[in-house]
Amino acid sequence: MIIMKMIKVVQGDITKMKVDAIVNAANTTLRGGGGVDGAIHRAAGPELDIACARFHGCNTGEARITPGFRLPARYVIHTPGPVWHGGNHGESSLLHNSYFNSLQLAEQNQCETVAFPSISTGVYSYPLDAAAQVALTTIKDFLQTSKSVQTVFMVCFDSQTLAAYQQAYQQLGIQ
Ligand code: ADP
């Protein structure tokens, strides 16, 4: 059987995604915040914060997995992306690590479908075009050797984010 792996760039609300795992652009406390983090915690219900508290935080670029509770997604993978400090503070490798470590956790938990938000490009101020390059390159490379992960959605909340990821997608020649 031939299985087609793919990246799909879509516009929408990640809390509505019926996938095996959604990724949360968390902060290092893992105790919820604004933006997509707040939206995920509200939609999942209070059990999510109780589950996250047990980790006692998470370093930037690392990832942790919890159930999805009231979300349509089975799991939430939480990763704090880097705060942008001008680009010379390891931001791109930390952003790569957030995507890579999230995908590895998805793989270890037999996920076939994974959805990401645009990590670090909100309050953390990572430039959108540069972030899109790191995100899509990391996902594309990961899919070359993944066993369970088949389809990865980039869920863009607004049209500017959608345009940046669509452009990066074309530049990378992703089919
Ligand atoms: P960070 O702190 O990592 O920058 P933010 O939550 O501030 O995280 O922003 C990350 C991205 O998530 C932004 O593009 C923001 O518009 C987007 N976002 C906010 N809410 C949602 C949602 N419900 N679904 C998908 N993306 C969202």
UniProtKB/TrEMBL annotation:
It comes from the Bacteria. SMART domains: A1pp (SM00506). SUPFAM superfamilies: Macro domain-like. Pfam families: Macro (PF01661). Gene3D superfamilies: Leucine Aminopeptidase, subunit E, domain 1 (3.40.220.10). InterPro entries: Macro_dom, Macro_dom-like. Residues 1-173 form the Macro domain. This is Appr-1-p processing domain-containing protein. It comes from Limosilactobacillus secaliphilus. The lineage of its organism: Bacteria, Bacillati, Bacillota, Bacilli, Lactobacillales.
